[in-house]
């Protein structure tokens, strides 16, 4: 990271299947020189950019070829990001594991686990060339505990925690990767689990400044850590 030389960072943020992530992440965009966004909405792909001249991803993080294309486009247009936030995610509808449709289970794993792996596969080598970079893998409280009705989601976030700790041992000096539990936020994903009671929790707008400050202050000393906002 270029902490002393240039306090402003470039971000690569990929988003979950949740329209509420637009306001949630916009304050982060205000903290950075470059923000690269790929937003997945209702099973479809929609390109979105907070800034008119910002490169953004095409396709879904679950697609290795799409992420490969994104990495190439980002480097060509803006250079290698200082910070990557792997925020793309989805959750299964409340159900007992044996009653979760196969396709739904696969979607959770493909996006929450394979999506993270695809981002790491294509961006870590670029960061290694620069000898610096911070990667934030969004985890969950359910990646450190468990709950009924959301076994696929819990499994995927536990996988993110394990993946993060293992990759941390593989990174060279000058880089760091962390798992970040964002806390409980009132998004569509939370509503799918909690129903109307999701409105009792913090809004994305109130969460984002806290998260941005925390992420911008990460250093290589945090490598391998499991953190919470």
From TrEMBL:
<dbReference type="GO" id="GO:0016616">
    <property type="term" value="F:oxidoreductase activity, acting on the CH-OH group of donors, NAD or NADP as acceptor"/>
</dbReference>
<dbReference type="GO" id="GO:0005829">
    <property type="term" value="C:cytosol"/>
</dbReference>
<protein>
    <recommendedName>
        <fullName>NADPH-dependent pterin aldehyde reductase</fullName>
    </recommendedName>
</protein>
<dbReference type="InterPro" id="IPR053241">
    <property type="entry name" value="NADPH_pterin_aldehyde_rdct"/>
</dbReference>
<feature type="region of interest" description="Disordered">
    <location>
        <begin position="1"/>
        <end position="26"/>
    </location>
</feature>
<feature type="compositionally biased region" description="Basic and acidic residues">
    <location>
        <begin position="1"/>
        <end position="12"/>
    </location>
</feature>
<dbReference type="Pfam" id="PF00106">
    <property type="entry name" value="adh_short"/>
</dbReference>
<dbReference type="InterPro" id="IPR036291">
    <property type="entry name" value="NAD(P)-bd_dom_sf"/>
</dbReference>
<dbReference type="InterPro" id="IPR002347">
    <property type="entry name" value="SDR_fam"/>
</dbReference>
<comment type="similarity">
    <text>Belongs to the short-chain dehydrogenases/reductases (SDR) family.</text>
</comment>
<dbReference type="GO" id="GO:0006760">
    <property type="term" value="P:folic acid-containing compound metabolic process"/>
</dbReference>
<dbReference type="InterPro" id="IPR020904">
    <property type="entry name" value="Sc_DH/Rdtase_CS"/>
</dbReference>
